[in-house]
Amino acid sequence: MPASPTVDVHAHVLLPEIEALVDGLPGHAEAKALDARRNGPEALKVSGRMIGDRFARLTDVSARLAAMDAQGVDVQLVSPSPSHYHYWADEVTAEKAHRLANEATAAHCSAAPDRLRGLGLVPLQHPEQTVRALDHALDQGLLGIEISSHAPGRELSDPAYEPLWSRAEESGALVFLHPFGCTLDERLDRWYLSNSVGQPAENAVALSHLIFSGVLDRHPGLRIIAAHGGGYLPTHIGRADHAWRARTDAHACAREPSAYLRRLYFDSLVHDPYALGELVRVAGAERVLLGSDFPFDMGAEDPVGALRAAGLSDADLRAVRGGTAAALLRLWKD
């Protein structure tokens, strides 16, 4: 391990055994139909080819390591593809699925333990299972969990998730907030707006729920990493601050919303050097982590180059490239 490793906190693994488990179960066809409606037929066709082209990097450790070497990445934090959330599943299926995801992700990472760390899944649609699922992930040697921006009928501000936040805070688990699917539905079903617009919107909504509901006030030790640079929220946080000052109904959290940006972590995947510079300005370099969305087409093929393009200072570049993440991932404590 280099003294100053380059660490990518946003990388995925595809787990075909999860899809084999849920295939044909009640509710699966309806979930696939919803996904198709939200994305549109052209997006599904392009995504199918894209996954096929990247299948080896998503499943084979040797192919992953070769790609990491080409990118100059020393360590990845690997999370299951968000397509494996399956928040439609019933209690029994959900428990089987998250346990299988945790165990399969841990097995993938164990093939290169000096270079891969992992995250598991919890069934947000069944809040009563989430603490047990988190503990199972930690028992597998994973560093935490990946969650979406909401579950059907529940926002992340729902009181039913308080035990999950408490356990994540107590255990020091990482919580990687990565949306999958946008509730704007058919409004985004062309030109891949479901991702280019939908993902940043979902990030902003989910983070706003965590901030305004007081989750971050009640759990100041939570270690949440927001994918996609936190979406639209960090660069438009001034509007939230204004609402907090101007309106009693928005004056719900203890401090201005912008103050909470320095209590969260964000990946660097914003696809714009000026936006990345602004993210570093409002959140602090010590709260921004290199992220590539490896190996999907909406990711960064050269994530380190994207950092350099932002013109960060040497100290800020070192922190974002891996200095902060190395401590979060406990690279020297295993």
Automatic annotation (TrEMBL):
Domain Amidohydrolase-related residue range list: 7-331
Keywords, comma-separated and alphabetical: Lyase
Protein name, entry field: Amidohydrolase
Pfam families in the cross-refs: Amidohydro_2 (PF04909)
Organism: Streptomyces endophyticus
PANTHER family: 2-AMINO-3-CARBOXYLMUCONATE-6-SEMIALDEHYDE DECARBOXYLASE, ISO-OROTATE DECARBOXYLASE (EUROFUNG)
Family annotation (InterPro entries): ACMSD (IPR032465), Amidohydro-rel (IPR006680), Metal_Hydrolase (IPR032466)
